[in-house]
Every structure is written in structure tokens, then in C-alpha cells.
Amino acid sequence: xxxxxxxxxxxxxxxxxxxxxxxxxxxxxxxxxxxxxxxxxxxxxxxxxxxxxxxxxxxxxxxxxxxxxxxxxxxxxxxxxxxxxxxxxxxxxxxxxxxxxxxxxxxxxxxxxxxxxxxxxxxxxxxxxxxxxxxxxxxxxxxxxxxxxxxxxxxxxxxxxxxxxxxxxxxxxxxxxxxxxxxxxxxxxxxxxxxxxxxxxxxxxxxxxxxxxxxxxxxxxxxxxxxxxxxxxxxxxxxxxxxxxxxxxxxxxxxxxxxxxxxxxxxxxxxxxxxxxxxxxxxxxxxxxxxxxxxxxxxxxxxxxxxxxxxxxxxxxxxxxxxxxxxxxx
Amino acid sequence: xxxxxxxxxxxxxxxxxxxxxxxxxxxxxxxxxxxxxxxxxxxxxxxxxxxxxxxxxxxxxxxxxxxxxxxxxxxxxxxxxxxxxxxxxxxxxxxxxxxxxxxxxxxxxxxxxxxxxxxxxxxxxxxxxxxxxxxxxxxxxxxxxxxxxxxxxxxxxxxxxxxxxxxxxxxxxxxxxxxxxxxxxxxxxxxxxxxxxxxxxxxxxxxxxxxxxxxxxxxxxxxxxxxxxxxxxxxxxxxxxxxxxxxxxxxxxxxxxxxxxxxxxxxxxxxxxxxxxxxxxxxxxxxxxxxxxxxxxxxxxxxxxxxxxxxxxxxxxxxxxxxxxxxxxx
Lengths: 330, 330
Prior knowledge:
The structure is a homodimer.
Chain A: H1 6-11, H2 15-27, H3 34-46, H4 51-61, H5 68-92, E1 96-97, E2 100-101, H6 103-106, H7 109-129, H8 133-156, H9 164-188, H10 196-223, H11 226-229, H12 235-238, H13 244-252, H14 255-265, H15 272-284, H16 287-306, H17 313-327
Helix pairs in contact in A: 2-5, 4-5, 4-9, 4-17, 5-7, 5-8, 5-9, 8-9, 9-10, 10-16, 10-17, 13-14, 13-15, 13-16, 14-15, 16-17
């Protein structure tokens, strides 16, 4: 990992196309409805890293030069992601995301629903307009999975008996599905959907990267400083999200430690001391270590897929994207 | 209008297809996620009249026998409508719709966002699965218009200076667009989208019916008993929705009456006496009469389009659907 912003190195081979994505996005908020443009402007200003469009474009570039269709698909993937995040923040009642105010935080939950729906609608419109039928199929499934991921989160909330398999299915649906859709579209774009085997391989690639990314994200809820994460630490657990460090800790703990863990994890508020005690117990029982290893294992599987590709700048950047997913420090 | 349930007469020529729609809808809630099936079951149980699938099927039947594609499109239109209503109820914080509890009322706003997204996603999936490309294009535009309608409602909230043109554009987007999409799909389904002129005519037909329907709906907020409407009377105005009776009244009133109207309409709560005073002023200045006439004029325009069709059971039922839209008593 470089000391500077590591995502910039990942994006370098597709910098020009990402600028075109940003331009397409800006075009969507020149509507006759002032409030849509106002909220849209905020969404554009706070959307940062464009990880999903980046991996879509890089995966497409593995096979050769990028065309306008790849750029449009990258825009669509970013739109779906922004829509899902905006609805997700409203569902979670988050008022900050990476230190920036959310739509529901600055305006209302109502505006968050409207803006998310508008962005979903625009993503569908762009696909129709550009006759991107294969991408439409991939994204229709993905959007279903995204909402199933949210439903699973609702279903499993505050359930300390959730299993690792249930957790992984949840984060695959919630995070893996869209990164998987991005890399599947990237793999299939040159062949107009005929290259189904390569598409399936790269969907798996993206899902692994996405699940690893989410495991690391969930680790931060326990490990990072709230200033770095841009939201209060312990926020996920307070919201009922039982994630891998705790799941692994509960599974690996002695009977006595498990009892203590369950008591601490059942709270919705903690004193600084209680939170430190919970963290120390997860550390002691290997919950953090297990999570790191699982993320690394998924990253290694993804690297194995890339190893079959010619050594191009796109492949190097995708390797760096995997590093970014599992090694970023916030 | 018949004394019994008039919608049943409208639906008679497409009864069998509407049953098939209901069966397709039920199939969507056999997921591995219990909470989705539970909420979905409630949505199915409380979805009543299927006005949009009905007019889609009837419009298609004007040209001949119905095929499986028409049924799937009818299901999709109902899904989009249910999704939009569920998000809309959450946006409006409505806990009752026609006397039945809403998703946000029974569960939470979070669940309403999730279920709406799931239904949108399923509608997209069905269109992709059945390769209904023309319908996809029509619905992509419609879904954009639906969210723009919601945004306009947000934009114009509590604005007593909103014009009739602005109001009509809002309800065309909010209600006309999906009924217009339903009848456009109905008109275009036999010709695989090649019959663009007929499609445009029937989109206009559905939009007129939809706008008339919404004008009548907005009248009920002033005129009906709350037991019949299934929600508190004056609810719309309390939520900031300035609708045609008030817009027309403010325009047509004397200076003195306009002042009284503005003072009363600026409140968010009314005593029984204040509400009666507001109603009496709108009555006196002709706001209700103007709204009724506007709805009738739109209904007449729609009837004019139908008059060019052969006299079949489908045409008679569509004529009855127009009557239903403007003459229903709640």
C-alpha cells in the first residue's frame, strides 16, 4: 500500500473514462426540478472513490480498449450504488457517511427515498437508452440481491446466534453483488454477453473482492477511531448488525468468555470501559484475527483469478484494487 | 355507475388474466427470507382493485386476444404501482391507506424502503426475464416520472402560490404516468413496439384518465367522510399538498375571501369549525365545481379516443373505467 491515496494508483489506467463517468453523472442533475438538482449536487460532491466503476472499467480493459458502452455501464453501476447507499443510510438512520452528511441527514428520510428512486430510475433509463440488454439482466438480478441484503439485515438484526454462513450470504447480497455485477459487466462487454464463462468467473471475482471489502469495513466498526471512519465506532452493533469479529469470537470463546461477550454485545449503548472490554474479549478469542484471515483468503482467491491474465497496467491496477479492499486503513 | 362494486364490471372481460396476475404476484413472495414473505403477504392482501393492470389488459384486448406477455406486463405494472405506493406512504408518513394499515405503519419506514426496492427490482427482473424490451423502455421513463412527481410534491409543499399548470404537471407525473404507461403498453404489445402512433395515443388516454382520477382523489380529501376515505380528511393539506379545489378557489375568490382562504389554508391543524369554514369558502368560490369540471373534461377527452374503437366488451369496460375514475364515491 502506498502512503498517498492508494485509490488514485488503482484508477490511473481508467482515469479518462472515470472523468467521462463524472460528466455523465453531472448531466443527470440538470432537471427542471430545483430540489432534485440541489440534492443531486450534494450526492455528486460527496461521492468519492468510484470503486465500482473503476473495477468495471479495469476488468473491461483486461481484454483491450474501452468503448463508450463501458463508460455508460460504469455510470449506471455508480448510480445504482449511490441509490442503494442513500436508501441504506435512511434505513440505518445514519447521518454521516465517511464524515460527510447524508441525504437523510441534510434533508429528510422522505428526500432520501425520492432521490434513491430517482437514481434507480435513471440507471434503468440509461440502460434502455443505450440498449445495454446484457447489462440490464445482470443489474436486474443485482438490484434484487441488494434489496434482499437489506431484508436479511432486518431479519438478522440483534440476533447473536447468526452464523458465519448467514453473515457471509448477507454481505454477499449487500456488497458483493454490485461489485460482482460491475466486474461481470466488465468481463462480458466486449462479447455482447456471449462470453458467459468469463462473465461467471469475473462475477465470482467481484463478489470475493466485495465480501472481503465488507469484512474489512465491519472490522473498522470495532477497530478504527471514529474520526477516521467518519461515523461513531460501535455504530453497527448498536444498530443490531452482528458482524464477523463478534460471530467468530462467540464461536471460539470459552463458555465463560462467551457469556461475558453475549452480555456486552446485547447492549445498545456502552461506556468507554464497556466498549474496551468487548473489544478486548473479541481480540482475546481471536475474532479480529479470524476476520482478517477470512478477508485475506478471499483476496487471495481473487488474486488467483487475475494471475491467469496477461501482465498489463489494468491487471496491476486490479491487483492494487484487491489490496485496497483489504488493506485500507479506514 | 352501478350500485354494487363498479370495478368488478370494469374487470369482467379480463377477469381470467387478472387472476393470472395475482398468481404471478404470489409467486414473488416465496423467498428464503421470511420477513420478505411476511411483508409481501400483507402487501398482496391489501392490494385491492388492480386498476392499472385492468386498463393495460383492456387496452390490449381492444386489438384482439390477450397473450402471456400482456399478463406479465400487467403484473409488472402492478408491482411498480405497489412499490411506488409503499415508498409514497413512507414519504407521506401515512399509516392508513383506504382504511388498511401501510407497510411503514405495521412495520417501519425502513421496511417500507426495503419492500419498495424489492418490488421495483422484481418488476425489472420480470421484464428482463421475458425480454419485454419495449415495455422496459416505457417503464424506465415512467419510473423516472414517478420519482419526479414525488420530488415536485416536496418542491411545492406548503406553497399556496402553486399554479394549476404546476399542480397538473405534478399529478401527471405522480399518477398519470403509470396509468399512461399501462395503456401505452396495452396499445403497443401486439406490434412489438412498432405501432408507435397508437402507443402515443393510448399513453395520452391513460394520462388523462390518471389525472382525472387524481383530481377526484384530491377532491375526496375535502369532501368525503374519513370513514369512507380510510384516512383523516384534510390530511393532504396538513401534509402541504395544495390541490386543485384550493388552487381554483384562491384564483377565483374575491380579495377578502382569498385572504380568509390563505389564513385557513396555512394552518396544519383545524378545529371542526375551521375546517368547515375552509370547505364553505372553497364551495362558495367554486373550487370544488371547477375541479369536478376539469376531471369531467379530461374524462370526455379520453372517451373521445375510445369512440374510434369497435364496440367490444373491452371498449365498454374501458368506458366504465373512465366513469369509475371520475364518479367513484371514495
